[in-house]
Design brief:
single chain, 495 residues, alpha/beta, Flavocytochrome B2, Chain A, domain 1, TIM Barrel, 2 domains, eight-stranded parallel beta sheet, four-stranded mixed beta sheet, 18 helices, 16 strands, 38% helix, 12% strand, binds protoporphyrin IX containing FE, binds flavin mononucleotide
């Protein structure tokens, strides 16, 4: 057993030990390899890193360090001799009692300021950040405003039914909460906190590969919440897949998701490499410099290089997490391994929508990853219009979801009028979760639902199957939509 006083001596870049879950690890050589940067580990030198570690990683992540790093158990009588971790600069802790009461949030946008107050600066940067100059993020938000309704009146709109099915699973709402990595950064309750709100409200949720909790832990929390409501909630969990490079590992992960009870795989296809997350990059450079590690950091990597990918965090590689080499043919074994519904997350043009249909996918999510991947990418609405124009048959054969920039429940109705099955909500629920936990997410659901119900009545419909394309004017976007030349038109029709 190791003595806390001995462990405390190892707090420099020459020798750095940390304690995780009562065991001591030598992370000296890992400082330069840690995808989250060396600075975050060095701050924990000679200290108990368990609390910080479990905010970000499942506990079994320590195994990745390899055997030589595990120095053995800490003598529990000597914990008082350990160092206190060095605080992260600007990580001001805000008492959540100081936030405005959740009832004062009357639009989903109202969650943003409390979230910014409560989140440590680095996590706020991670959540709110986008790629390059932020243009892809901006079009997501702006394009919702560029579609207008064409309402009908005098139609007896006393009661409305907002329900929709996603992959055969009915929800009271045509929106769901989309995949967001490491919810433990956003709220200490992590994925289980979010799942609680979903189950209580009947909203479906897509759980990220890059979650804080393991797929099984999250599913256990789902079952616990279901048992509290007599298994009556229509909520279902789906699994977002970042495909690991190693096929055996990929199949094992897919089978784990299946065995745990996830109802479908949402394979993220817009992330063969990580986009340039500008704000994260700046912050990482500042943090590294503050710990004297600037010469060890290599934040700028050649684009597309092997494994230059970090699923959840800005611009650092995670070896083995995802291969940039995945191709359409791979869908066959992925589908085979899951033996259930497959959705492609991140389709951004009509040609790929058509290919997804031909490869037998059950759904596509039109998305530019919340503006975090390709610079100058199209909004989901623009892609939806392209599909309606050039390959409308896709919409009869697959479910089509959209996400990006959704803040108002009334906007959900625009996508439904244009033929979308459902709309994914990202940052809007994340800000609510950050500031108010599951209570905030429930409030976020109520806000979106109320806005949607009101919009339906004012548009003159009482159920979503009455929503029609002629109930919206999308001409502003259609005017800017990509038009094929004669050759490309031929290619499109032969795809
Ligand atoms: C000991 C073994 C560790 C391993 C194998 C490991 C691995 C990783 C990986 C793969 C990532 C990228 C994101 C992901 O896939 O989750 C990451 C990010 C991160 N890790 Fe670790 N980690 C370890 C220890 C720690 C510890 C002890 C802490 C906290 C004190 C920590 C804090 C973080 C943070 C904050 C990030 C996000 C970085 C950012 O925002 O840029 N990690 N780590
Ligand atoms: C903080 C954050 C983390 C995300 N993590 C993931 C992820 O782990 N996997 C994934 O497929 N998409 C991820 N996304 C993209 C979302 O699933 C979704 O496409 C996007 O957030 C929708 O845009 P919105 O946030 O403007 O609603 C993430 C987005 C954000 C903002």
């Amino acid at each position: 057993m190791l003595d806390g006083a001995e462990v405390a001596k190892h707090k420099t870049r020459e020798s750095c030990w940390i304690v995780v879950d009562n065991r001591v690890y030598d992370v000296t050589t890992f400082l330069h390899r840690h995808p989250g940067g060396g600075a975050v580990l060095l701050r924990q030198g000679g200290a108990d890193a368990t609390a910080e570690f479990s905010k970000v990683h499942p506990l079994d992540y320590v195994k990745e360090l390899g055997e030589g790093s595990d120095l053995g158990p800490l003598d529990p009588k000597t914990t008082a001799s350990l160092n206190t971790p060095k605080p992260i600069p600007s990580q001001e802790v805000v008492n959540t009692d100081e936030l405005p009461h959740v009832s004062l949030c009357v639009t989903t946008g109202d969650f943003e300021a409390p979230a910014k107050r409560v989140l440590p600066h680095r996590f706020w940067t991670y959540v709110s950040g986008s790629a390059n100059s932020g243009l892809s993020f901006k079009v997501n938000v702006d394009d919702w405003d560029r579609i207008r309704f064409r309402p009908r009146v005098l139609r007896n709109v006393g009661a409305v039914d907002m329900s929709r099915s996603v992959l055969g699973h009915k929800s009271p709402y045509p929106f769901y909460f989309t995949a967001i990595g490491t919810l433990g950064n956003i709220h200490p309750g992590a994925e289980p906190e979010a799942v609680r709100a979903c189950v209580r409200k009947g909203v479906h949720q897509v759980i990220s590969t890059a979650s804080t909790k393991t797929p099984e832990e999250t599913m256990d929390s789902y079952r616990r919440e279901q048992s509290l409501v007599g298994d009556a909630s229509p909520t279902r969990l789906f699994f977002q897949l970042y495909l690991p490079t190693d096929r055996e590992k990929a199949i094992a992960l897919i089978k784990r998701a299946k065995a745990a009870g996830y109802k479908g795989i949402w394979l993220t296809v817009d992330t063969p490499v990580l986009g340039k997350r500008t704000a994260d990059r700046r912050l990482q450079a500042i943090e590294a410099a503050s710990m004297g590690l600037e010469q060890d950091e290599a934040p700028i990597r050649p684009p597309g290089s092997e494994n230059s990918f970090a699923p959840a965090f800005g611009g650092r590689p995670v070896p083995g997490q995802l291969s940039p080499h995945t191709v359409w043919e791979d869908l066959k074994w992925i589908k085979g391994a899951f033996d259930g519904p497959l959705v492609l997350k991140g389709i951004q043009c009509a040609e790929d929508a058509k290919l997804a249909m031909e490869y037998g996918c059950d759904g596509i999510l039109l998305s530019n990853h919340g503006g975090r991947q390709l610079h100058s990418a199209p909004s989901a609405l623009m892609t939806l219009l392209e599909i309606r124009t050039y390959c409308p048959e896709v919409m009869d054969r697959m479910e089509v979801y959209v996400d990006g920039g959704l803040k108002d429940g009334a906007d959900v109705l625009k996508a439904i009028c244009l033929g979308a099955t459902a709309v994914g909500v990202g940052r809007s629920y994340i800000y609510a979760l950050a500031a108010y936990g599951s209570r905030g997410m429930e409030r976020c659901t109520d806000i979106l639902a109320e806005e949607l119900a009101t919009a339906m009545k004012l548009l003159g419909i009482t159920s979503l199957d009455q929503a029609r394309p002629e109930m919206v004017n999308a001409n502003a976007l259609l005017n800017e939509m990509w038009r094929p030349g004669a050759n490309q038109l031929r290619i499109l029709s032969h795809l």
